[in-house]
Structure formats: structure tokens, C-alpha cells
Amino acid sequence: MADLLGSILSSMEKPPSLGDQESRRKAREQAARLKKLQEQEKQQKVEFRKRMEKEVSDFIQDSQQTKKKFQPMNKIERSILHDVVEVAGLTSFSFGEDDECRYVMIFKKEFAPSDEELESYRRGEEWDPQKAEEKRKLKELAQRQEEEAAQQGPVVVSPASDYKDKYSHLIGKGAAKDAAHMLQANKTYGCVPVANKRDTRSIEEAMNEIRAKKRLRQSGEELPPTS
Predict the structure, then answer these.
(1) Is residue 141 part of a domain?
(2) Which CATH number fits the domain that encloses residue 94?
(3) N or C terminus of the chain with fewer C-beta within 10 Å?
(4) How far apart are CA 37 and CA 46, in angstroms?
């Protein structure tokens, strides 16, 4: 009988120690705080959605507004706003490079932004329809001028007068000046023009003179002066 009672008592779960009770208490408190935070976050999302629905509704009813820019939001808030806008039948876009600075713009369907307008917002610039229209007209004008120039072919530019005729008095003065300098140089340094150095004798006369000079050198006689 004692052995049976001992086996039953040993098989029974022992009461938790003081340390185990403290750990379980902390776990219960942490779970309660987490649940409370989740409920608060859920409530905040509900309230934020109601506020966005109110602002979007006011935007739709205001005939003077065609677009609306919201303050920067976090990713969850932007997601809620995009959903509200889609349900309302509007168009929305997010802009801004940094996540902390990203914001949402909403547009009425009949005033949906063009690609140029969207690119302007992506660059962080304000959209100016008047400047954009002027830029578009200038671009179209430049394109038409290029097409007309291509149809006409290459343009040949003909001068009104020959530059040689136009500056002949300058060219003539320069040539005369160069000739005067050359003549002065010849006189100063004893230079002889090439035309004066040209040999006008015949080949036979030149050969006879060469032979005569050779004979005189061999005989030791003095050469007579040549005419």
C-alpha cells in the first residue's frame, strides 16, 4: 500500500517554483501590452481612414479643386489613402525619393495629369501649365523648321563678291611691298636674282671653255677673263 501511494505521488506534477511563476507573469504582461498596442494601432488606422475619407469627400465636392497635395506620410498611411482614393473613383500618385518625405497627390479623373506634369512632380518641381504650353510650342516650331530644312536640301551659300576682287588692292600692295623688300635685300647682301644667274651659252661653248681652263691649269698659265 505504501509503495502504491509513493508511486502516485511521484507521478503527480510538482508545484511551480518561485522563478517559474515570475517568468509566467512577465510573459502574460508582455502579451497583454502587445495586444493593447495592436488594438491602439488598429484604432489609429480606422480613425486615419475616416479622416482621409472626409478629406477626399470634401475634395470631390469642391468644384474649384482639380488636385490635392497631402502632407508626407508613412508607408501604411499612404497605402490607406490610395485605397480610399481608388474607392472614390479618383487618381492618386506618390512622389518623393526618401520614404520619410514621400507624399500623395490626388486628381479628379477628368483632370488626370499628363506625363510631363508627372515628370515635373517627380523632379520636385511645381507644375506651370503656361510655361509647359510655351515650351511645347517652341518644340513644335523647331521640329517644323527642321522638317522644312530637310525637304529643301542643303543650303549653298554664295558670297556677294569674290574675296580676291574685294581685297585686290590689299593683295597688290602686299605683293609690291614684298618685291621691294626682296630688291632691297639683294642690294644689301649682294644677292643676285636667279634670272641673272642663268647660263645663256650653248653646250658647245661651255665645253670649250671648260677644256681651255683645264689646259691652262695643266700648263700653269693664268686664265683670261671671261666676257
Answers:
(1) no
(2) 3.30.1370.50
(3) C
(4) 14
